[in-house]
Design brief:
The protein is α+β, with helices and mostly antiparallel strands and 346 residues long. Among the domains are: 158 residues, no CATH class; 83 residues, Pdz3 Domain, CATH 2.30.42. 51% of the residues lie in helices and 21% in strands. It contains nine helices and twelve strands. The two termini are 22 Å apart.
Length: 346
């Protein structure tokens, strides 16, 4: 089930990206030879005539492309409305449209989530929202949905009093009374020291409530969140380039699939927010000046604008080939790190 959800999420982001290229190419009057969802062998093709765009569905769901006339040096037919015949600004718009579309879709996902589902906020209720695996709370038998009535006979009417009771108990065993399905149950729990927070904890998290926003508030918050996450992605990319962030901290397809599964387990709100964040990542990473990505094509167009003529196709293809090989090597490394983290429980 997790794999299916991951394919749907990643497929959605890729289709949105390619749709951006497609729409702007059509607006610029460029002849689009094929719009493909997926990669590999064709499963289905729809084309009205040889002069129109072929819409195809291919075997491998994680991918897609828009093939425009004039972009592939192996194209046998010449078209008056091919990519290279259009003004520089039109070609620049076509190449950048994929990332723009991903960013706009992320804003839309945030707005829809905040308006229809809400904004996740920690509740001050004394009800347990989540029990952490392999924690004292699990060992004692506590469950999500339990309402903590008292700790060591002191009443706990809200989450602040729950946290205060656990901290006051320290490392000594404490007596908890909880209400579960109208029944009062007693539990003995011994807190465990947590070094990151420098406190004793039992492994419970407070309940999360979703607060719906009005139309205008949802739009404002969607814009704010989108640009905040974009800033975080840029800071992360800068850290990778500077060497202050290791590639071990970067997630590849395997890690992203696991993360999507965790987001889906939290409900549709978390899944939509995570999809929006992934969309922002895809938008910005694609603009990096790395051969085989949209960013490198934009660099080539900038160079063409400065020197007044395009770079020779064979040189551009050679640079893209080397860049693609390096990109695949990085892809393999990150995937290996993903698998290693899962095996080690990281």
């Amino acid at each position: 089930m997790i794999i299916i959800i991951a394919i749907l999420v990643l497929g959605f982001l890729i289709v949105v990206h390619e749709l951006g290229h497609f729409i702007v190419a059509k607006m610029a009057g460029i002849h689009v030879l094929e719009f493909s969802i997926g990669l590999g062998p064709k499963l289905y093709v729809r084309q009205k005539s040889k002069e129109t765009t072929a819409y195809s569905l291919r075997l491998l769901p994680l991918g897609g492309f828009v093939r425009m006339a004039g972009m592939d040096t192996e194209d046998e037919e010449e078209h008056a409305d091919d990519f290279n015949s259009k003004p520089l600004k039109s070609r620049f718009a076509v190449i950048s449209a994929g990332s723009v579309m991903n960013f706009l879709s992320a804003i839309l996902l945030f707005v829809i989530t905040f308006g229809l589902i809400g904004v996740p906020a920690a509740s001050n209720s004394n009800m347990i929202g989540e029990v952490v695996a392999d924690s004292p709370a699990v060992s004692a038998g506590l469950r999500a949905g339990d309402r903590i009535i008292s700790i060591n006979e002191a009443p706990t009417r809200n989450w602040e009093e729950v946290v205060g009771g656990i901290r006051e108990s320290g490392k000594t065993e404490m007596q908890m009374v909880v209400k579960r399905e109208e029944k009062s149950l007693s539990f003995s729990v011994t807190p465990r020291y947590d070094s990151p927070s420098d406190n004793y904890q039992i492994g419970i998290r407070q309940q999360v409530v979703w607060q719906k926003q009005g139309f205008i508030a949802a739009i404002k918050l969607g814009l704010v969140q989108s640009f905040q996450f974009a800033k975080m992605v840029l800071v992360g990319l800068a850290g990778l380039i500077a060497g202050t962030i290791s590639t071990n901290e970067v997630a590849g397809p395997v890690g992203i699939t696991v993360a999507i599964g965790e987001a889906a387990a939290g409900g549709p709100g978390y899944l939509m927010i995570f999809t929006a964040v992934l969309g922002i990542n895809l938008a910005l990473v694609n603009l990096l000046p790395i051969p085989a990505l949209d960013g490198s094509k934009l660099i080539f167009l900038m160079i063409e604008g400065l020197r007044g003529k395009p770079i020779a196709p064979e040189k551009e293809n050679f640079i893209n080939l080397i860049g693609f090989a390096l990109l695949m090597a990085l892809f393999v490394l990150i995937t290996y790190n993903d698998i290693a983290r899962i095996i080690s429980g990281g």
